Amino acid sequence: MITTAKRLDTVEEYYFSSKLREVRQLQSEGKSIINMGIGSPDLSPSKAVIEAVAAAILDENGHGYQSYQGLPELRKGMADFYQDQFGVALNPNNEILPLMGSKEGIMHISLAFLNEGDHVLIPNPGYPTYTSVTNLVGAVPVYYDLKEVNAWEPDFEALEKLDLSKVKIMWLGYPHMPTGARGSLALFEKLVAFAKKHNILLVNDNPYSFVLNDNPMSLLQVEGAKEVALELNSLSKTFNMAGWRVGMVLGNPEIIDAVLKVKSNMDSGMFYGIQKGAIAALNCDKSWFEEQNKIYRRRRELTEKLAEKLGCKVYKEGVGLFVWAKLPEGIASAEKFIDEILYEKHIFITPGTIFGSNGEGYIRFSLCVKEEKVQEAIDRF
C-alpha cells in the first residue's frame, strides 16, 4: 500500500474546494444556488488588457519559456504602479519578483525562510493558507488575536507576552481578509518596529487595497520597512484577473533573491501574453478604479440589506471585496447557520469559522455577485 507523506496529516482539503462540491451537487439536482461565498471577480479586465493579450498571441517569440523574473517591462510596470499609487520607490531589477499568483508566493516565502520547528505568527481570523502552508513545511503556527473590540488590529501587549524566540515570519494583510479592516500607517509603523525588535520577517498580503478603499496603503511606505518586510500583491481583485494568476512580491534584494531560489526550482515564467496583459492593466488610469468601485458600492449596499434581513450586524468600516457581519444573538454555530440558508434558501455564504476561532459568530458575503442576484437573494426571504 502506498502511503501519503506525513505532512498531509497536518492539513485538510481547502474549505472552498470541498464545500463547492456540495454546492455543485445541489445545482445538479436543479437547485438555483446564489454563490456569495467566493471572492472571484465576475467582472472582466479592461479592453486594453484583452487587446494586449490578443496582440501578444500573434508574436512568434511569445510561446517559449519565459524568464523566471518576468519581462523587464512587467517589473517596471509593477515598480511604476507602486510609485504612482503608494509613493513607494522600488528597483525593478532586484526588488520585485512577479509570481504566478500571490497565493503561490506564500509557499515560496515559507520554503525560503522556515525550517522545521520554526514558529510563525498568524492572524486569527485570517487567510487559511497561512496555516496550511506553515504546517506543510513543518513549522509551527502561533495565532495572534484580532478582535472587533480592537478594530481587528493586533494587541501589541499580548504579542509581547508570547514566546517569540522561535518566531521567523509574521503574516498580516490589510485591508484585512475576511473582516475588511483598513489598518493604518500608524499600525504599520508599530508592526515594523515590532519586527525589527524581534528579528521577524514581516509579510503583508495586500490584494484588496483598491476595492472600495479611498486610502490605499502599502507596508513599504513605512521608513525602514524593507529591512524586515515583504509585501505580496496581486492583479486578481484589482483588475479582475483572478484566473490569470499574476502576483508579485516586493522587498529588498537579498530577501527577494532567496524567494527566487525557491520559485525558480518550482515553476517557470508566466506566459508571455499574460505578462503583456498585466502590463496593460498596471497602466490603467484612475477612472478604472472609480468605475469598478461604483459597481461594488451598489453591490455592498444591497448585500448589507441582505445581512440585516438575516438579523446580522454589518461591520460598516470594512473595505475590500467582502461584507463581514456579526450573527444575531443566540446563534451558536456560524456553519450551522449558513448550512440552513444553503439548503432552505439556496444561498451560499461563508462561515467566519474557516478563518479561525475568532471568526465564530460571524459570516462573510462576497461582492462578486451581480446586483440582480443579490436582490434575488433578498427576495428569497
From TrEMBL:
Alphabetically ordered keywords of this record: Aminotransferase, Transferase
UniProt GO MF annotations: pyridoxal phosphate binding; transaminase activity
Cofactor: pyridoxal 5'-phosphate
Enzyme class: transferase
Domain Aminotransferase class I/classII large residue range list: 32-381
Superkingdom: Bacteria
Assigned EC number: 2.6.1.-
Range of residues in the leader sequence: none
PANTHER family reported in the protein's UniProt record: AMINO ACID AMINOTRANSFERASE, L-GLUTAMINE--4-(METHYLSULFANYL)-2-OXOBUTANOATE AMINOTRANSFERASE
Family, as annotated: Belongs to the class-I pyridoxal-phosphate-dependent aminotransferase family.
Record protein name field: Aminotransferase
